[in-house]
Specification:
mainly alpha; about 0% strand
């Protein structure tokens, strides 16, 4: 093999390393989006998934099709609407990540203050965090590729992960955390 060329296995190894490093950087950036001071049991009691209901409709293709039918001579309107909605969707996704991180922080706090060690819960929590961030990365990629026709976004899956984590926390948080007034 001539020097200066990469063998297919070397190329695959370098590609894999780049993907792993990129995901690690994204994981760190996503995991650092929250304010630990606001992660309280009051916040948990007030937390609701209803604020994310618009996410499921923001990129609904029927709106863009309707606009194209109503104004066939102005395709730039649909492009502008799509750009604005993609931007709004990304903002909602950022808020969703912040709320997930708040919930995740509370779950870790619950583990630290638990009366007994629960390594299986800690492992499940880490696995859920990795799956959530991976899903967020995929959705961000799909939102970027949306104008090219990739329109399948799995928002309910992310919301379900948040809801499941919130429910677990609400069930165990009351007994796991010390009373802040004590």
């Amino acid at each position: 093999m001539p020097s200066g060329t990469l063998a297919p296995l070397e190329f695959l190894g370098v590609g894999t390393a780049v993907v792993v490093v990129a995901f690690a950087i994204l994981f760190f950036r996503l995991a650092s989006r929250f304010d630990p001071k606001s992660a309280t049991s009051e916040w948990l009691n007030e937390f609701t998934l209803e604020r994310y209901a618009p996410m499921e409709r923001l990129l609904d293709a029927s709106d863009f099709e309707f606009l194209a039918r109503r104004c066939p001579d102005r395709p730039e309107l649909a492009k502008q609407l799509l750009a604005e909605r993609r931007s709004l969707f990304r903002e909602y996704l950022g808020l969703l990540v912040e709320d997930f991180n708040q919930l995740h922080f509370l779950a870790k706090l619950m583990l630290v203050h638990a009366a007994e060690d629960r390594p299986e819960f800690a492992g499940a929590l880490f696995g859920q965090q990795v799956r959530f961030y991976f899903s967020v990365c995929l959705i961000r990629l799909k939102v970027t590729l949306y104008p090219l026709g990739w329109t399948a976004l799995d928002v309910p899956r992310l919301l379900h992960a948040l809801e499941r984590l919130r429910n677990e926390l609400q069930a165990g948080l009351k007994t796991a955390l010390p009373d802040p007034n004590a």
